[in-house]
Amino acid sequence: RKALFEAQSPEESECGSPKKKKQDPRRLLSTSAPASISGNNLLGNFEESVLNGRLEPASTVEGFTAEIGASGSFHPKHLTFPVTVFFYTLCENSNVATPYLSHINLGKKGYRVPDKGTIQLTLFNPLGTVVKMFVVMYDLSDMPPNSQTFLRQRTLYMPSDESDSHEDAQKWLRYLIHLRLASSKSGKIYLHTDVRMIIFRKSDLDTAADHESGKGFELRSFTCGPTNPKFS
To answer: What global pTM score does this model have?
Structure first.
C-alpha cells in the first residue's frame, strides 16, 4: 500500500511556496521519516510503521498543544506549538489502550538549542491538561557544521531489574519522542522539521498489574540515536 503520509509538494510545504493551501492533516508526515533504530520485534515494527506514516489512523484530532524549551549554555525562549494527533486501533478489544501519534510541525526556522543540555517538551490535551512531560538529556558538542542526527527516547514499562537491551525481558512501550537535529554552517544546533511522539495511556493498568503480580515493574526511559555514523 502507498504510504499514507505522502511527501509534501512545494505548495503545501511551509518551507516552499508562500501560497496558502489548506492541508489534509493526514499529509503532515512526509515519507522522509525518522531513520530506523529498532530491532525486528513487534514493538519495533509498530513503532517504525507509526513514525513513518505507514499505518492508517482511525481518526485525527486537533486542539492538542506542546510547549518546547531547552537549557544548557543558554536558555532559549519556551515556545508553544499546535499538535495534530493521529489515533490508531490495534484491535477490537476495548480493554487495550488506543495509541496515538502526536505530530508537531516546527516550521522553517526550527528551534535553536544548546549543543549540550536538556530538551523539555510538555504535551497538553485540548482541555489544557498535561498528557506527558518529556525530558531528554543530550550531548551534541561533537556535532560538525552542516550535519544532521536524531534522538529517540523510549519510556518502557518493564521489570526494574532488567535492561532494555535484554531480548527476553518483558517490556511494553508507553511513551516515545523522536527529535531531529541539524547544525548550521556556523555550528548552531536546531530542532528541525518536526517532532513525533507515540503515546500509550496505560499507566493505571500498569499500576494495577504491578500490584497484583508483585514482580517489580516500573516505567524506565532510554535515549538513543544513530551510531554508525552518528551524524550525516
So the answer is: 0.78
